[in-house]
Amino acid sequence: MINFAEITKSDRMMKKIFPLFLCLFALSQAVSAQNTVYRMHVKMKNGSTHTVKTDDVQEVYFTASQPYDPSHPVTADVDAIHAPQEGGTYIVHINADIPLSTEGGTTNPSEYDLFSHFVNQGPVILTTTYTDGILTITVAPTTRYIVNSLDVKLYDLEGTEAFSLIVSQDGDSNASFISSDGDNYIASLATAMRESHSKYRKADLEYTGLLNMDGFKAPLDPYDYRIRQIWYTIYQGINRNTQLFQNCDRPGLDVFRPMCTVLNSVAYYELVTFFGGVPYYTNSDDAMGYLPRMAPNEIFNNLIGLLKSAMVNMDEKVTGYIDNSVKMYSMSKDIARVALADIYMYQGRYMEAKPLLEDIVNSNRYSLVPAVDNLDPECSEIIWSQQSSLPTRVQAKNTTVVWFNYNDYLCIMQTYADVLLSLAECETKLNNDTQAKEYLTQVATTKGIELTSTETLAAISEVRSRIQTDFGGYFAFLKRTGQALSTLGLEEYQLLFPIPQDELMMNPNLTQNPGYGAITR
Predict the structure, then answer these.
(1) Is the pLDDT of residue 428 over 50?
(2) Which of 31, 91, 171, 487 has the fewest CB atoms nearer than 10 Å to its CB?
(3) d(CA 212, CA 141)
(4) 257 Cβ contact list (under 8 Å, min separation 6)
(5) How confident is residue 239, by pLDDT bands cut at 50, 70 and 90?
């Protein structure tokens, strides 16, 4: 049936469309008389063609389309709606002088974006209906921790937006903050940190002679696969961490900024103490480029600023053994303090490192345990440790076979004993030898280590050579205190590892450390 009552156009428009009615009517009559299938083709001004079979047509009618005129705005009796976590139904009275619909506009499909799904957040889930000036909005209950507001829109019959209303909702405070995608990503950061630190620690112990397992000793070769493993594994963690770091300005993601800062700071500290200047990434695209080496102090000064800023939002608490993503991304301020103090001490800025370490001691959050190594992950001495993989048997310098659990489901990053020895080092460098010996004696006495050296720095080195097998960093200590050449019998150039040869071949902007031969590409 052709509904002429709905036609409200001018006579001129009628003259244009009436032939179409007649054509359609004639075709429908022909269809009833024979088995031929007819189709109606309507060609639009934009060149597109719409086709319909005539026997599928039940009714053809036309309606008036009044476009939205901004000079006559659509108004409502409310400006916004805020729903509780349980949701609810809301009636909005709309004042408009044109027909409106909830359908219109265009939506462009977007690719999946991990960092938009990192935390347990999502838009308000709702349904809408609009009839005779009444807009009904029904908001569903939410299980999201964070609910993002949504614009409810009304359109004229041409699909142009004529009105919008913001609908927001309380999140579920009992829901998990982080999504499963975010949880998996944080777990991958923990794994990357564990694996890179394990490589760092093993290289540190072997190069300083504390362990004898794979013969990783001076002089090193740029072609040595172990050099490549250290470089690659640490940068792999940096690359993955930086992907999250550069997205921390997004809503809900700022909470991960302190963790990202600490992880990058520890990683770059380990790189610099082994290799000197290295490429410094500020975004994930840097990994695909050919960055030159940045000077160690420039890297450290960048990290110092980031750590200071991050510490403002970190809590005064004990993190200890990290075995879940929540503990990982909410690590304590003490972890950042140790990372920052290490950088200051490597730069010789002992006056600035000292108060950071004193804050940890004065907090009374930690205490020493008698064990020299293989610390229990739950013990009171742990500031930061993580799950690790399987145990590996190693041979100590004195040829006695021992087991070190650097791969025994525990990766020790920071300990209270290290803090006390670092404080002793600071006091010595600041000419407070009496106070330095007090800190040193606390560690040596508790752990049953008999000191043979009378000079304080040498005595600190003695204790560190015993306890630092758990977490590494002995080489950095020896270098910053000027004891590496004499203690390890190294030549000056051997205070730095060679840059891996394959990195030099791939990146034309890299230079080799002195003493390791000419670059061949």
Answers:
(1) yes
(2) 91
(3) 61
(4) 245, 248, 310, 313
(5) very high
What is the spatial distance between Cα 198 and Cα 226, in angstroms, rounded to a whole number?
12
Considering the domain architecture, whether residues 84 and 47 belong to the same structural domain is answered as no
Q: How far is CA 294 from the centre of its chain?
A: 23
Same-domain status, 43 and 142: no
Q: Is 95 in the same domain as 239?
A: no
3-state secondary structure of 162: strand
Q: Return the CATH number at 187.
A: 1.25.40.390
Tokens of 1: 């049936």
* Bridge partners, residue 139, by sequence: 88, 126
| Domain boundary residue, one of 169, 194, 223 | 169
Q: How many residues does the chain have?
A: 521
Same-domain check for residues 275 and 144: no
Here the CATH number for the domain that contains residue 119 is 2.60.40
Judge whether 437 lies within some domain: no
Q: What are phi and psi of 38, to 5 degrees?
A: -110, 150
Say how far apart CA 190 and CA 184 lie, in whole Å: 10
| 52 vs 163: which has the higher pLDDT | 163
Kindly tell me if the per-residue pLDDT of 431 is higher than 90. yes
pLDDT tens for 161-170 read 999 999 999 9
- Number of domains observed in the structure of the chain: 3
How far, in Å, CA of 140 to CA of 88, rounded?
7
Burial class from Cβ neighbours inside 10 Å (0-12, 13-18, 19+) for residue 264 reads buried
For residue 490, how many other CB atoms are within 10 A of its CB? 19
Domain that holds residue 33: 4-56
Strands 320-322 and 161-169: unpaired
Q: Can you list the alpha helix ranges (DSSP code H) found in 314-415?
A: 325-329, 333-346, 350-362
Higher pLDDT, 227 or 393: 227
- The per-residue DSSP string of 298-309 comes to HHHHHHHHHHHH
pLDDT score of 57: 74
Predicted confidence (pLDDT) per residue in 390-426, tens digit: 444 444 444 343 444 433 456 899 999 999 999 999 9
Tokens of residue 488, six digits? 């390890």
